[in-house]
Amino acid sequence: MPDATLETGRSAPRAQSDFDVIIVGGGLAGLYSIYRLRKQGLKVRAYEAGDGVGGTWFWNRYPGCRCDVESMEYSYSFDPELDQEWKWPERYGTQPAILEYIDHVAERHDLMRDVQLNTRIKTAVFSEKTQLWSVTTEHGETVTAPACIMATGNLSTPRKPDFPGIDDFKGNWYHTGLWPKEGVDFTDLRVGVIGTGSSGVQSIPHIAEQAKELTVFQRTANFSLPARNAPLDPVKEAAHKAEYPERRKAAYDTPFGIAGFPPPTQNALEATEEERRAQYEAKWGEGGSISYLFSYKDLLLDEAANQTASDFVREKILATVKDPKTAELLCPNNHPIGTKRLILDSYYYETFNKPHVSLVDVRSAPIQEITPTGLKTTEDEYELDAIVFATGFDAMTGAMREIDIHVEGGKTLEEQWEDGPRTYLGIMVAGLPNLFMITGPQSPGVKSQMILSIQWHTDWIADCLEHMKVTGKTRIEATEQAAEDWVNHTREVADSTLYPKANSWYMGVNIPGKPAVFMPYVGGVHTYTAKCNAVVANGYEGFVLSGETVGA
Q: How confident is the model at residue 489, as a pLDDT?
């Protein structure tokens, strides 16, 4: 990979701007960006489409929405006093609890004065003449800044249903990613849920408690493990808080950015069948996804090893669900466990033992259309009063592709990513100077503790901007060669694992017409952060820094 180029030629003088940095998004990444950049004396403004901050945790209000990372880990690390003061009620945080925490952080650090709500960004255009980004909102307001940070999130663009006839449906329909603030009462209704990914698995037990009849339409069975959620143990809470600084630091040296899980030392097939069953049984009883995948070293590398872990979960499903036909349909059979998002649930499989809950296989009999009174497959018709679309997101690239991002006279980002996203470190796109991403494609992002990855990227970007200021440079961009090398490396790392064997949203295959490209970096947080540090130590290797400030 080429060394960074420090160009000494003076580029066009930079015009006066409205802000030093414009931030797109008011979720966890946008809020931390405000906090971090303010500390450097920068004038910033964040634009958020919603009428409140929180990002994913603002929009996803569906019943049962809960984080799959434990509460004590899923939080910011920049405020040690808050670490000690904040009381998480449960082992895994609910959407309301997490949003309450985010709102508290925003208030505690006075972040809202630099957030403009109810504002969706439509275009972001860089001018070579002014050396500024001009960002225009859907209301026609245009603001400028030399740098722009896309804090748009990985799961922030709901995949809206495209079934024929949806506009003729006489009942109400909902998307889990755009749930009404006031909630939904399904009492005495015949409800259909389409989709059995994470939001479907989490919401189905709760909807079943209200609905008169619940019909679940499943195309692909997914692996789900018991969360074993419970009120937070005060003894464990105190012990965790006593170790917070050490645990926060140690997390960067782990694959998933979460400390406290001793790495496995043995391959699955090196153990006897009895030893494996005992290990899996213990992990099943403990709850949690990382713990289960940490049973053995090779579960995501070797198909035969993975089969032992997959078979154990399938056995649990068959033992839990009483109707043999339903149980068989709920057993995943087209991907190794862990290669799609490994879901955590509370009584998901048990829900199908209720007499008013039924499962329909829409892989063998696809949905043809939404009718005025329900839903029609190739084999049957279902009368429904309400429909819930748990159909997921245009993950990792959707939010950025919705914005017209380009250099004047150049290709748009959407055109550049026509064959799949191409980034350097998931932080920058070649040819788009001073445009940064937080947890972009080809970074650990969704395969890590997201808040840790958010803070890592934000800190890296903030340090980069400070470096530019100190060295008198005004412009940074990734080279085409560095981006190509990193994309190839990301693909090679993925290909050395079982991840590409699943048709998952990691690959973008849930979106019609989207290129099938594995997007996250799965080499581990520890490997990735070491690479980012090496890039900086080598003089921002793979980037071109240019321009000079007046008087530099």
A: 95
